Amino acid sequence: MGEKIHTIFVCSDSVGETANTVVQATIRQFNASQVQVRRFGSIRTEDEVRALVEEAAKVDGFIAYTLVLPELREMMRQEAIRLSVNAIDIMGPMMQAFIDTFKGSPKRKVGLLYQLDEQYYQRVEAVEFTVNSDDGKDPSAMKQAQIVLIGPSRTSKTPLSIYLAHKGYKVANYPLVPEVKPPAIIYELDPSKLIGLTMSPEHLVRIRTERLKAVGLPFGAKYATGERVEEELAFAMKLYRELGCKIIDVSEKAIEETAGLILADR
After folding, report:
1. Which residues pair with 150 in a beta bridge?
2. CA 117 → CA 11, 90, 106, distances in Å?
3. What is its EC number (predicted)?
4. What is the pLDDT of residues 47-101, one digit of tens each?
């Protein structure tokens, strides 16, 4: 006959991720190939707690739990004693230490850690959206974007977009070139979500010259000449005035500073 399967019950009034993480870390410290973990989330009633402890007692397992509501923690404690089940309160002692040391009062609201995880997934979604909308790849995405950056090449559109995406904002950006008419959708957007980026001609020439060196193109390429830069900046400024959008000169600004100016109005 094979070895007996040992069962650990993870119980939570949220998703149980905290308790499960502790349990998995513990299991790795042992030769525990015959251990299974069963998770029970969204526990809300004393009857659910009672049934869970009874099930653990039947298989000689133990319980690791994170229950925020004191009445559920007390029921877990009483039932564990009654049925001789080992039940480990993962969060309770930490909350009590906080109360005893800092005289704080817990919110007693379930799922707060999960809400933080939701914010994380929102940021991931924002980054994915922004990457797929970079450099005018999908002009139609501008309608779904929360922020739309427009400007000539090398005015920090992409790094600024990614920075804002990590803040949770869906960002699209579009490069402006005098020879290419901007997509009609730009004129349909709310000007409040449009940001026109500009830069001093001297600064932009330096950046483009360095870019030419990096990609191995000849130093005298039209892309980095003062005349070309002046033409592109003039074209951009004319468009910004037509659109009525906010204009930011990014010449001497760090990405964080420019992002702060954009988010200050939101």
Report:
1. 174, 196
2. 19, 19, 20
3. 2.7.11.32, 2.7.4.27
4. 999 999 999 999 999 999 988 888 888 999 999 999 999 999 988 788 778 777 8
The SS3 call for residue 258 is helix
Return binding residues for ADP.
151-158
SS3 content of the chain, % helix, strand, coil (to 5): 50, 15, 35
Binding positions are 151-158
Residue 244: count other Cβ atoms within 10 Å of its Cβ.
10
- Mark residue 16 as left, alpha or beta (left: phi above 0; alpha: psi -120 to 50; beta: remaining): left
CA–CA dist 228, 238 (Å, integer):
16
The secondary structure element, H or E, covering residue 195 is strand 194-198
Residue 9: beta bridge partners? 38, 63
Structure tokens at 102: 């800092």
Output the CA angle 213-214-216, nearest 5 degrees.
60
Residue 192 CB contacts under 8 Å (≥ 6 apart), including other chains: 246, 265
